[in-house]
Amino acid sequence: MFVIALIYGFVDKFNHIGAWELGILALIMLIGFMVDYFSGIVGAKYGGAAQKSMLFGILGMIIGIMIFPPFGGLVGVFIGILLSEIINHGNGERAFKAAKGGLIGSIVGTIVSLILSVIFLFTFLGFAIK
Fold it and tell me: How far, CA to CA in Å, does 57 sit from each of 14, 47, 92, 117?
C-alpha cells in the first residue's frame, strides 16, 4: 500500500501527499511490519516457548505461507513451535501450551495488521482528497 501511495505522489507531483504525509504512512507501515513479525514470537514467549522454539515457529510460518497461503503461516507457527518443544523438552502439554500461545499471538497480530491497513487506507484517502 505504501508503494501505491508513493506512486500516487509521483503521478500527482506531490501536490496532495508530501514528505510529512509519506512519513506518517511510512510509520503506519513500519508498525504493521513489526506487529506481523513479532506477534507470534511474543505469543509463544507468553505461552512458555523456548527461544529455539520461537525460531522454529518463524521457520514454520515461512514454510506454511509457501505451502498454503495465506493461512499456512498460522498453521506453520503452531506446528513449528509444537514440534520444537516436543523434540527439545518431550512434554506434550508444555509444547501445546507454547504452540497455542504462538498461534494466538499470530492471530492477534493479523487482526492488528488488518486494523492498521484500514487506518492506512483512510489516512491515505484523507491526504489524497484534501
Answer: 42, 13, 16, 24
73, amino acid identity: G
Q: What is the C-alpha separation between 101 and 47, in angstroms, rounded? A: 4
Query: Could you tell me the three cell numbers for 3?
Result: 508503494
Q: What is the pLDDT of residues 59-68, one digit of tens each?
A: 988 898 899 8
**101 within some domain:** yes
CA dihedral 101, 104, 109, 110 (to 10 degrees): 150
d(CA 118, CA 53): 32
Predicted TM-score (pTM) of this structure: 0.78
User: pLDDT digits over 88-119, tens only?
Assistant: 888 888 899 999 998 899 899 989 999 999 99
Is there a domain that residue 13 lies in?
no
> Which three cell numbers mark 96?
501445546
Nearest alpha-carbon partner for 80 in 106, 108, 109: 106
Q: Distance between CA atoms of 30 and 85, rounded to whole angstroms?
A: 31
Range of the structural domain that residue 118 is part of? 2-8+18-129
